[in-house]
Amino acid sequence: MTEKITKKQYFDAVMEVLNKADSEVTYGEKGITIDAMQDFVKHEVELLSRKNAGKSVKPSKSAMETAEVAQVILDNMPMDTPMTPTMIIQSIPALTGKSNQRVTSALKVLMAAKLVTNDTGKNGKTLYTKVGE
After folding, report:
1. For residue 46, how many C-alpha atoms fall within 13 Å in the half-sphere facing its CB?
2. Which of 23, 72, 85, 86 is deepest in the core (most CB within 10 A)?
3. What is the pTM (predicted TM-score) of this model?
4. Rounded CA gap, 49 and 116, in Å?
5. What is the pLDDT of residues 81-101, one digit of tens each?
6. 95, 69 Cβ separation under 8 angstroms
7. CATH architecture of the region 61-130
């Protein structure tokens, strides 16, 4: 699989070609000069840089809340006791009012970190178990 070429890489390649071109040449009916094209490419690269600088690396509000719920579960869930998300909400007072979906999402985060495992119980419900350290 080939690596995707970014817009900045394309602009860098165009700039390299323009730097090698004869500066006396003009293109098109309007007489666009090499210098004008170089200025345009520099401007476009600058716009890309500003756009990319504005991207947030901060986690979303939802992700932060899920991480908080995961920490509460990790701190309060009994060791080696299989529980459904509803049982976890009922047994940990700090989770009162949290949805099953939020707790399940937090449990998936803990499963990815190998701090919790899951299994399907006799009634088909998913049971989560905090594993020993």
Report:
1. 6
2. 85
3. 0.57
4. 41
5. 899 999 999 999 999 999 999
6. yes
7. Orthogonal Bundle (1.10)
